[in-house]
Design a protein that fits this description.
alpha/beta, Rossmann fold, 7 helices, 5 strands
Length: 193
């Protein structure tokens, strides 16, 4: 089943290395037959949230928010790529997600976390799991942590351990596809409220 996936990247740093993982994921999911849209907060340049998207009058939201709302509503699943900042999620990622709520409902999410050290951003991933669930897009059980991100992928997103990375990605992708397919089928029949 071909799915529409949104990859959400969380960093706006000038020398961000997590973008390498995004490049890998774009190619890997496309190779599995999925349509991929990448959402990069650096491109949207959203101000700090003053009000949620739903709090704007009809037709009164900034065009960037309208564009993002359309991405979320036409997506079957959301893959969040997050670094770990002070054992938590990057502020740009939190800001981008916090603008929305209902647009995320009934879609699964999946977490790819990373860090410069050996833990692969798992502390941020656990906080992100609670946040995503509250936003109406619970995360799949499997996460994909990436340790020592500066050496795990080349600039173009090629993994330095292709066998290990492919093995971990395949399990991650299969699980996401299962959840996304199930929720897509159920959404087509209606939602609880």
């Amino acid at each position: 089943m071909s799915l529409k996936l949104a990859i959400v990247y969380g960093s706006v740093r000038s020398e961000r290395v997590g973008i390498r993982i995004v490049r890998f994921l774009e190619r890997a999911f496309a190779a599995r037959g999925h349509e991929v849209t990448t959402v990069d907060p650096l491109e949207y340049k959203l101000p700090l949230m003053d009000r949620m998207y739903k709090e704007y009058p009809a037709g009164g939201a900034p065009k960037e928010l309208d564009s993002l709302a359309a991405v979320w509503l036409h997506t079957d699943a959301i893959v969040v790529v997050s670094g770990e900042y002070n054992h938590s999620v990057p502020p740009a990622l939190s800001n981008l997600l916090d603008y929305f709520l209902e647009q995320f409902y009934w879609r699964p999410s999946a977490i790819v976390s990373y860090s410069a050290g050996p833990f692969g951003g798992v502390r941020a991933a656990m906080q992100l799991r609670a946040m995503l669930c509250e936003l109406g897009m619970p995360s799949i059980p499997t996460t994909m942590p990436v340790s020592k991100v500066k050496t795990a992928f080349s600039e173009d997103g090629t993994p330095t351990d292709p066998v290990g990375t492919e093995r971990r990605f395949t399990r991650f992708a299969l699980e996401l596809e299962w959840y996304a397919g199930a929720l897509k089928a159920h959404r087509s029949q209606g939602v609880p409220y």
